[in-house]
């Protein structure tokens, strides 16, 4: 049917315009996080833990929307912040997620470099 994504399971209908409408807030949030984290050092945020959680959610939502490049960029922001905060476990988790996305994108060589 018109407006349905190719390969979408029966009963699931998504139009491109509704996809864009749902993606706009995510893209805006990503842009704000990117701007906040582009400078060196730890950004001035109320709660670094909540910021890490927000970045994880952002990346997960991009993955659910089947937007692996945006998910990859979000996980890279997460990795950067984890490293700045000295959160080794969080950085390892981010690296694992980055590797998964790279493998999904069929870029195993890039995943090995990490």
From TrEMBL:
Gene3D superfamilies linked: Tetratricopeptide repeat domain (1.25.40.10)
SUPFAM superfamilies: TPR-like (SSF48452)
InterPro entries: TPR-like_helical_dom_sf (IPR011990)
Name listed for the protein in its UniProt record: ESPL1 protein
Taxonomy of the source species: Eukaryota, Metazoa, Chordata, Craniata, Vertebrata
């Amino acid at each position: 049917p018109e407006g349905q994504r190719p390969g979408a399971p029966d009963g699931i209908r998504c139009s491109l315009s509704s996809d864009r409408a749902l993606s706009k807030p995510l893209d805006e949030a990503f842009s704000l996080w990117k701007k906040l984290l582009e400078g060196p050092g730890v950004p001035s945020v109320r709660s670094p833990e909540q910021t890490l959680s927000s970045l994880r959610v952002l990346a997960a939502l991009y993955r659910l929307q089947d937007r692996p490049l945006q998910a990859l960029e979000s996980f890279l922001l997460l990795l950067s912040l984890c490293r700045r905060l000295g959160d080794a476990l969080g950085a390892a988790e981010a690296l694992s997620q980055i590797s998964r996305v790279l493998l999904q994108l069929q870029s195993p060589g890039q995943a090995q470099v990490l």
